[in-house]
Amino acid sequence: MDNEKVYAMSFAKIYPLLVNKAVRKGRTKDEVDEVICWLTGYSGADLQKQAGADCSYGDFFRNAPHLNENRKLIKGVVCGVRVEEIEEPLMQEIRYLDKLVDELARGKMMEKILR
User: Fold this and answer.
1) What is the pTM of this model?
2) Contacts for 13-21 with beta carbons within 8 Å, 24 or more apart?
């Protein structure tokens, strides 16, 4: 999929997909929110505002209050691509979130997910 199409997707449509992925595997919405807030610096209230607003996925990351410095420690494969090797910075941020939600859904302990 073209990066620009991903960036233009509505965060309000993607957010429930991220939550559902984790919930289907026995995790909670609060845990997904914790992971997203850790990565982006949004508060829980701000995250909910973004999830209810007409905000693109790209803008969600572009406007993030404070991207966590430890996000660079996230390693592994998402959709067949190593997240640490993604050259496009915005796509890498998106894939970091995908990787964190994958780890959550796989049952990894929160302390290990949040590096």
Assistant:
1) 0.93
2) 14/57, 15/50, 15/51, 16/51, 18/97, 18/101, 21/101, 21/102, 21/105
